[in-house]
Structures are given as C-alpha cells and as structure tokens.
Amino acid sequence: MTPEPPGDAPRDLLRVRGLHTQFVSDRGLVHAVNDVSFSVRRGEALALVGESGCGKTASMLSVLRLLPPHRTRVRADEVSFKGRDLLGLDDEEMRRVRGPEIGMIFQDPRASLNPVLTIGRQLTESLEVHLRLGRRPARHRAIELLASVGIPRPASRFDDYPHQFSGGMCQRVMIAIALACEPSLLIADEPTTALDATIQAQILDLVSELRATREMAMIWITHDLSVVANLADRVAVMYGGSIVETAGAQRLFDAPAHPYTQGLLASLPALGGEGRGRLTAIPGQPPDMTRLPEGCAFAERCPHAFDRCRRERPPLMPVGKGAPPGERRTRPGAQMALSAEIGARAACWWTG
Ligand SMILES: Nc1ncnc2c1ncn2[C@@H]1O[C@H](COP(=O)(O)OP(=O)(O)OP(=O)(O)O)[C@@H](O)[C@H]1O
Ligand code: SF4
Ligand SMILES: [Mg+2]
Fold first, then answer.
1. Of 108, 145, 221, 321, which one is least surrounded by beta carbons within 10 A?
2. Mean pLDDT, consecutive 10-residue segments, the chain of 352 residues?
3. What are the structural domains of the chain?
4. In angstroms, what CA-CA distances link 187 with 60, 140, 162?
5. Cα separation of 345 and 317, whole Å?
6. From ligand 3's centre to the CA of 40, what distance in Å?
7. Contacts of 59 (CB under 8 A, 6+ apart)
8. What phi and psi, each to the nearest 5 degrees, are found at residue 202?
C-alpha cells in the first residue's frame, strides 16, 4: 500500500487507501487501478494527471461506486468521506452522497445530460430530490445557478433541451448541476476538454470563485498542465494504474521527482502561452494494462532504468525534505489543507 503521512486523518475529507480496480474484458483482466492511495482535505484542489488510459477515470468511478459490478472488481482498504466508510453504505445511502455531498462533472457533458429532459428539469430534479425543495423554489434556485455559471438569459433557456445548447453551454450546465447541492467535494473529469480557450478560461475562473466562496474541495482530472498550474494546490501523477508521484503543485513544476513526471514536463513548451501546457506524448508506449510488468511499469520508457526496476515495483517514498514555507499558497480555503503536507513522494528506486 502506498503510504501517506500519519497524523493528518481528521482533516481529510476523502481518504482512499489501497484501491484496486479491474475490468473483466475479452482481452483478460484489465488492471486499471493498482494500489492507489490519496486524500483530499477541505478546500483543497487536487489535480490528477497522466496519459490516456492510466486509470484516472476508473479511480474516481470506483470511489463513487459507479462502475457496473458484473464487469468490474473493486477492492480497497479504505474509501471514506467525512469519516464515513463509503464501501459500507447501501445503494440508497450512496445516492445521498453522490450529488449532495460529492458533485461530479463527467468527461463528456453531452453524454451525461439526459437528451429528453429540459436543462431546467435536470437541475430542479436534483434540487427537489436532494435538498427537498418545492417545485417553485427549485425553479428559482435553478435559474440562479444557470446565471452563476454564465448562461445568458437563464430564465428563457430553462425549458431548452441539451441539443439546443453548445458544447460549452452543456459544460456549464453540468457544472451547475454538480454545484446545485453545494457539495463539499467536486470531482471534475476533464471538464474543459474540447472547449475553446476562452470558454475554458471562463469556466476555470468560475470554479475558482465558487471554490473560494464555498470552501469546496476538488479533484480535477486533466491532461492540461497549464490548468494544473492555475488551479491545483497538490498534484497526483498517475502511470500504469498507479500514483507515481504526489507533490504540491509548485513543487511538482519546480522539482519533478519521478522520471515520468520529468518526461511530461520536459515535453512541454513553457507554460503560460496561448495553447500551451498540454501534455504531449513522451517516447514509447504506456504498458498493456492486462499484462503489467512485475517491476516498475515505467521501466520500458525510463532513461534511468536499472535491473532492480524490472524485478520489483517501487512504493511511493518521500523525496527531498519537503517544500520551504515560501512555497505554501494562500488561496482562500486552502491554507489549512496545505499546512501539513506539501512534500513530494515518488514511486521510483532512482529518486528514492
Ligand atoms: N469498462 C471497461 N472495460 C474494460 N476496460 C476498461 C473499461 N473502462 C476503462 N478500461 C480500461 O482501463 C484503463 C484505465 O481507463 P481510464 O478510463 O480510467 O483511463 P483514463 O486515465 O481516465 O484515460 P483518459 O485520459 O483517456 O480518460 C484503460 O486501459 C482502459 O482501456
Ligand atoms: S523505478 Fe526505475 S524504471 Fe521506474 S521510474 Fe524509477 S528509475 Fe525509472
Ligand atoms: Mg478518463
């Protein structure tokens, strides 16, 4: 199991320990998530990054118990939210956590919206069910929410269907639905993929503002490191179904420890310019998730690989002495979350 520092449990909003997820497929068992551990604190923004297929979505869907049980095997030592064991909840109790307590924005907003229900109804349904609002107050609140995510003339768009909205508008609606019940944690899976840069910037501003005013924690899955730089307090880098590095965002950019993270950052142009900051491929192929190697999953692509790397899988180990106080960020809501742990950990024999 990948260790996190002891003594920080009470502040954790979400704690995940030793999560494993496998899919039953025609090609055999897909080892999508392998011994993943992480935690998120109140008000903290954690970014989850890594190449396509490394297990980001599968990790989050496992935590939310949204994977079909007949084709999936999920086990974990711990998945707890506000101290409650999510794995022990029945389906009805879990439905009361998803939405009101943990908001979700899925990878494809159009596929996540119901095409035969109006935008307004999709919002009011959640408000009526989870916040037990009557129809009129729910409508009023839904219009407020549409306005808060920047939908122009929200009252007149209330009865429109998803196909009458652009991709960016659907994205905003998904954000409004996710925020409707004012969750303590927002899980956003590639929420700005395929949006143009202006709309993406608007959505990021909006989420930052909502985060500051509501002290909401976030897990933000993205391929885009410029988004990470702007939004995240802490970063977890995934490779081959495992977290291979965690660090404060600033520290990760300044001193990436794991060779995979170093490769990702080295393949980037300088952050900050228009259209910059997207992860580009580093040489070689990600591992076949049905046949993960015994040792380090990155060994075939790693410039520092040596014999031990192919024999044994390295655990996450502390790297360096932790970040200096000057690195601590003071974004509203994040101070407490960052006070205890901003040092880096990497799963690598070379850096350990
Ligand atoms: N339902 C499924 N059945 C079989 N294999 C699956 C299923 N869903 C995901 N996988 C496999 O599990 C692995 C992890 O997938 P996942 O969707 O979590 O990746 P990801 O990191 O979210 O990638 P992306 O950045 O492309 O969204 C991949 O190898 C993927 O092909
Ligand atoms: S454990 Fe070995 S192969 Fe893996 S990243 Fe470190 S040096 Fe490279
Ligand atoms: Mg995904």
1. 321
2. 45 94 95 96 93 94 94 96 95 91 84 91 90 93 89 94 89 88 90 73 78 88 86 95 95 92 79 50 88 96 94 89 39 34 80 76
3. 9-101+188-347 (3.40.50.300), 112-180 (no CATH)
4. 8, 25, 22
5. 5
6. 19
7. 16, 19, 21, 33, 36, 48, 238
8. -60, -45
